[in-house]
Amino acid sequence: MSTPTPTGEAHLSKPNNFDGDKSYARRFLSSCQAYLSLNEWIYNTDKSKIIFVLSFMQEKAAGDWATNHTTVALAPNPTTNTPTVKPKAITVTR
Fold it and tell me: CA 72, CA 80: separation in Å to the nearest integer?
């Protein structure tokens, strides 16, 4: 018998906003990890996890940093910040 997949997010407090205060960084990351772990069926790609965490970094120095990284994360090819190029089809003839 299989366990049904939940359809919505688990009811857990989302992380508080992070403003760049280093004394709060470990608690912020721990809160993000717990939330993402309990909602792994929703946040199941690296991109969705990154965007989730960056969405709570909107204040002070963290906001500037997150804005730049969100732009890169939302790019079609985040590694190079360029559109993903689809390979051309290869035709094999005999």
Answer: 8
Query: Among residues 64, 69, 38, which one has the least CA distance to residue 53?
Result: 69
Cβ atoms of residues 83 and 77 within 8 Å: yes
pTM for this entry:
0.70
CA–CA gap between residue 19 and residue 36 (Å, rounded): 20
| Domains in the chain, number | 1
| Residue 29 covered by a domain | yes
Answer whether residue 83 shows pLDDT above 50.
Answer: no
At position 91, the amino acid (one-letter code) is T
| Domain range for 71 | 14-94
Rounded CA-CA distance 70/16 in Å is 18
